[in-house]
Amino acid sequence: MDFALSEEQQFLKQTVDHLLRDQCSLDVVRADATEKQTKNPSLYDGLTQIGIPGTLISEDYGGVGLRLLDAALIAESLGGSVATVPFIGSSVLAPIAIELAGSDEQKNVWLPRFASGEITCGVALGDHVGARDNDPITSDGASVSGRSMFALDIQNADVMLVATADCELHLVERSEVELKPLYTIDKTRSVGELVFEKSSSEPLSSTSDPSGTLAKVIDAGRVVVAADTLGAGQTMLDKAVAYAGERQQFNRVIGSFQAVKHMCAEMAAELEPCRSLVWYAAHAYDAIPEDARLTACHAKAHLAEVGRFVARKATEVHGGMGFTDLLGLHYWFKRIELNRQLLGTPEFVRNEAAKMQGWV
Amino acid sequence: MDLEYSAEYDAFRNELRQFLDEHKHLSPGAVARPPANREEKEDGPNPAQRWQQLLIEHGYAARTIPKEYGGCGEEPDPLKAHIIAEEFAKARVRPGHSGDNRLVPTVLELGTEEQKRWLVPPSIRGEMTWCQGYSEPGSGSDLASLTTRAEVDGDDFVINGQKIWTSGAQHADMMFCLVRTEPDAPKHQGISYLVFTMDTPGIEVRPLVTMTGEATFNEVFFTDARVPKNQIIGKRGEGWFVANNTLKHEREGLGDPHQAENRFREIEELMSNENVDGESIMNNPAHRDRLLQLQGRMLAMKYNGMRVLTSQRKHEEPGLPRWIIKLQGCELNHQMAAMAIDALGELGTLYHRSDHIRAGGMWQQRFMMDLGLIIGGGTAQIQKNMIGERALGLPKEPKVEVKSA
To answer: In what helix (H) or strand (E) does residue B178 lie, and over which residues does it extend?
Structure first.
């Protein structure tokens, strides 16, 4: 029994953190946000050089062959730095979908290109995570039609993964899709609307259980979004504690006032158990199938709640400065708020958890 | 990350399960109930003491207490301790104890050889029970300001003053108590830690009825109560250090995640079985969503507990994950009791053995007791100070200068 990160995992996280500290400063994020850039070329190159896009892709296809917990640690780091690069869609959802549902030939064709960072993939699962303003995605086996909202990682993506309303998974070349970016509060990630009109597609049909496969893809995504929130929340807490330890009023640092100190303590008390929940859910995805879906839902929903709490309190600790653009705290706040709604709102996801426990 | 147990631990768990299957009918009920009063304990071991003895014989209680003091003498193994807690909780069988989980570790660590032999064996057999004399009417969170004094007179300390919030003082055989022995020393350095029998002349116990309607606490008054000088643990003036050792053990004991999981299962059953307007409460989406939110919190705390356990196994300081347990665990229990009451609606307010009462009014009782636990053993606010200062490194509140009159 060892509920802890391995040395390799700690090293992985440190490596990613180190790279992000160098290449993803707040100035970089701010410049990217201003230019509506969600795939910073040099940062993405840096991450590619240490193998990040291939984290979950097996070594047979040029990846690193790691597990979801490793991807969650990377997401935590990316969230912690509000990094302007694709990851959840392109490096988690898409490779998992191809590994689970692609033919050997499809794996051979696609996965090495994902692993090397040569191409990135947008992911549209809108019909299955709380469809809004949608035209359901349909397919005739060789093409797809319909509209999917809040597709992830679409900017500069070379190919799109789309789930039909019937749980089929298809790959569609970028040129076959009408892509309309959506501008959310969070300028660090790319989401958008994908419109398909008899867009020729490549079905990933080497699975006997399409709905189960899709559900597993979504489980992975939820854990990784939760991890992103964990990282973003931790940074907000760290910034709040640092600010409270420096800022002076009434001739005292404000962190010595219990009103402020207790806000920090409450954030830490709420956030720290979330780390264990994310770790467990990520580990369960690969190793404890009977707990995987339930804990993925709870990680997603609980991190959404705690993330919002931390984002709000950390902003408050910074007083008026927290509300300004100057400090840039809002980038984390907004990332957490987008994460909350992605891949199923907390209420939606908890309802799924109720169903799988036979409560509905 | 490896959540499998090695063969040794699987075997240990299987043996324990078998033991519980075979013996749980001997367990004196899941809820610890002290005997009604001290006089009743005269004729031989009571069922709780016999159960405790059986557990010690099988290595499921007082595990790490050395054999010479009546324990099992096992090496500390947090994982086995965890398995024991988990299996007893699952079987809903009353677990054993290690005497008093605050006093016994303190005596073993800081007591003299004579004190260990005197106090530890009967404590772990359940024949010597304890209450804690720390808080005073004027010294709650600021415990170190306590004023109950003990003056040396011949071979005795002579105690005068008052303690409050003394759980179980009406039943306990003994008290471990903080008294001021050096009134001129700075407040943290003038305290001593004494142990004495509750039969000592000059001690009066008055029950303190709480909002639950029960008197689980007491006030204890001392009027020239004489305690032999050798009944001090540690040296004169070092009682604060000794007491902090005790508090450390108490903090770790509160907010048990197994308890939260059991409680959660009880609410799940309640919501599935109770009807409102002819429909299961589980069918009400608002109640159901609250239940799920609590499940998320409960799981987070459960896995946090696994993380702390892993640190302890590796002899690492768990840090923040441990600092938050009391605050978050007590709050979670309280919220779960509130959820159960709300699921029951008006029925949830029934108490005092009323007709139609559910589970004997247990949820109201817990709802109130849990509030007591949020306040007791270091209030939630004191917990937040500790998290802020010790785990996050924020500065202490500046001391206010006291102007003498």
So the answer is: strand B174-180
